[in-house]
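BUG: 3D viewer hangs when loading the predicted structure for this chain

Environment: internal workstation, default settings.
Expected: structure renders.
Actual: progress bar stalls at 90%.

Input used:
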Amino acid sequence: MNWLLLPCLLYVKPQNMSRFFCGFTICVISMVKLKKFRLDKKGMRSFLSPLETDVLITLYKLEKARTREIHRMLKQRRHVAFTSVIVMLDRLHKKGIVARTIESGQGGGHYIYYPKTSRQEFEESIVDNTVNKLISNFGDVAANYFHKRFSRKE
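Structure tokens produced before the viewer hung:
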């Protein structure tokens, strides 16, 4: 695959040349990790995998839950292995999106997962991070564009 390097931060990888910009993945390097932002997806799906998104949405509904509870809710809507839910929760934890505590129970300790922020705050942080990175990399060009774009009267 060919990669186009843009100033310091954004890497654009064509996934399907017939789809133009909707087929591009932009990888945004944040202060913590490399994060992908898919222009052809909406909401959290532009930042997370489909299964990560479903797991996180389920966790937002439950507020606080064990892996088994999340799996039970998810399998009502889609076929998903228990181990896949475990992996997704671990990835979300490593990305800093969810937190976990250990609770003793029957059979030993269990992780209890909960989102670190509300869904609204999480989505706003994605937008904020992306805009800040664009301004950081493109400076006055990005700032002037945003000023022109959002000061228009429509």
